[in-house]
Amino acid sequence: MHKKFQVLTLVCAITAGLMGSASVVAEPVYKVGATATGIPFTFLNVKTGVTEGMMIDAIQAIGKAGGFETDIQQSVFAALIPSLTSNKIDLISAAMLKTPVREKVVQFSDPIYSYGEGLILREDDNTVYKSMDDLAGEVVGAQVGSVFIEALNKHGGFKEVRSYDSVADMMSDLRLGRIKAAFGDHPIVAYQMATNPRATKGLKLSSTYVPVVVGDVCIVLRKDDPETLAQVNKGIAAIKADGSLERIIKQWKLN
After folding, report:
1. CA 165 – CA 77 distance, rounded (Å)
2. Which terminus has fewer CB within 10 Å in the chain: N or C?
């Protein structure tokens, strides 16, 4: 009886230990919304079918340091916040600038990267543009759901502000002369022009335009979720401290 009791006790101890170990290593898995067209922040690698980019590498590193796993979910840019607020995804990791308007609906993590808008022109347009005022009376474009659409409509004075689902569609209309100029995320457009000149042929970024919509790129979360926010910010602080974030930014030529 004594030996049987010892064996039973040992089995119970091992079982409890295994269960305890499982509870320690188990981490929450967060569905992360990202776009397929935000090169180099987030984009679909058509050869592998995998979503890649600076913000993909960043959220994965943040998750590793913050204690959670990630499941990347593709979405069009304009659907990211609605998907988040309707609980279809748990986080957004994309080239989405923090703005007061968006803060009314969602909450933002500590900053990861900062940038402003770039003015895209046809190569044969030699006009010196320094501000939106210089495009008064013209037809201009920007990506739907972006802060640039908001800024253009708020600024006013344009003949028309057209919205596009993707930067590629916007560039196509610009190349065809359907719009006079386009506004887009400066680092995204600059990266595309440097790495894919064929797709951006006939276009250029203005070297004289001064951006007015400069903001921080953060991880976006639902409101009233302090626990997840703490996890994310913990991860961001860690990858900033150990140099991981700087290496990711440098890898994607955003430094």
Report:
1. 8
2. N
82-104 pLDDT per residue, tens:
999 999 999 999 999 898 999 99
Structure tokens that stand for 44 in this block: 């679909």
Gap between the Cα atoms of 206 and 204, Å rounded: 6
Burial class (CB in 10 A: 0-12, 13-18, 19+), 56: buried
Tell me the mean pLDDT in the region 39-60: 94
Asked whether the beta carbons of 125 and 104 are under 8 A apart, the reply is no
Query: What are 205-217's pLDDT values in tens digits?
Result: 999 999 998 999 9
* Topology, domain 29-114+215-252: D-Maltodextrin-Binding Protein; domain 2 (3.40.190)
